């Protein structure tokens, strides 16, 4: 089985949206409120593509996963509660958002490979730290995140909304 990552293009948007929609359905089935509104929508994903921050996991020539790798500080991470970030190097950090694996690949442990590739991309761009967050109810993602080597650091709020709390994680490369 061949596996690699590549940057997404606008032509990939329908496939990315299909994976995001599958993820939304899986979260809904588990009664996890994350991604149950309009977010993320096609315009969010197109903006990631336009910024060259959208990445795809390719397995046997098929799109099996999608993720956004941001290279600018995330304003949602500026304030952390009930914990703290390990001090960030001058080079800053990358953050992983909107990561999802296509439904037909669940259980294949592709998340492990995808995270490894995103770490490599971060490192190649000069970053030595990666951050990520997930909903407190999303036990599966918490497991995948910690399995990838991230350490739990505290709580962050999306857009300073006290109703939109996330668990925040960090890894040093």
UniProtKB/TrEMBL annotation:
Kindly indicate whether the keyword Transferase belongs to this entry: yes
- Membrane spanning residue stretches: none
Q: Which UniProt keywords apply?
A: Acyltransferase, Transferase
Pfam family example for this protein? Acetyltransf_1
Superkingdom of origin organism: Bacteria
Molecular function as annotated in GO: acyltransferase activity
List, for all copies, the residue spans of the domain called N-acetyltransferase: 3-172
Name the SUPFAM superfamilies on file: Acyl-CoA N-acyltransferases (Nat)
RNA-binding in keyword set = no
This protein is called what? GNAT family N-acetyltransferase
Task: Tell me the organism.
Answer: Lactiplantibacillus modestisalitolerans
Supply the source organism's classification: Bacteria, Bacillati, Bacillota, Bacilli, Lactobacillales
